[in-house]
Description:
66% helix; binds calcium ion; Recoverin, domain 1; 207 residues
Amino acid sequence: MKGWISFMADLGNAGDLLERKIDVCFGHVDADGDGFFEEADVMAMAARIIAFQKIPFDSPAAMGLFASYQEFMQNILEYLDVDDDGKISPDEWRKGIISTFGEKPEKFDTLFRPLAESIWRVCDRDGDGTVDAQEFLCFQKAVGSSEKNRRLAFEKLDVNGDGSLSVDEILSAYREYYTSRDPAARGNWLYGDVWETQAPGVMKAGL
Length: 207
Ligand SMILES: [Ca+2]
Ligand SMILES: [Ca+2]
Ligand SMILES: [Ca+2]
């Protein structure tokens, strides 16, 4: 009986997992911390990834990343910006991600694949066709992951354990992170331990 009760308790936690992940992510995407997600935030994120990777801002990979983030933003505004003010509030973000992409993996992939490809291209700094843990650091530093979370994330995302990430591994990590309620999904670890990472609301309460 005790086992059943703790099983139900686990299910209760799992029910909050997706909302938790989406809230934690709002803290990354709202790069300037003004409480809204808008184009300036994604361009800042792209610039941070490129700067951490130490590649020229006018290199093809860097320009490709800016273009992908800009296009991504235009598309996601269409889905999520319900009040049409040109920016996404935390509430629009949470409700919109779940209602737009929940249980619709094809729709998710259409929007996120070009972004995953551009991020992957910037990450593969030495151009050998693989992204190792060292190369993936530029993305992890840009979203502000702790050193422990960076290590955890790479281990979980490298599904076939070959020490490098493919575009598909990055895309499936994104997809599971933003759409899956399965506590065992590897993509839950995209940004490390989501229960350890502070969500924006928690940070504000602590100030
Ligand atoms: Ca912002
Ligand atoms: Ca809005
Ligand atoms: Ca490489």
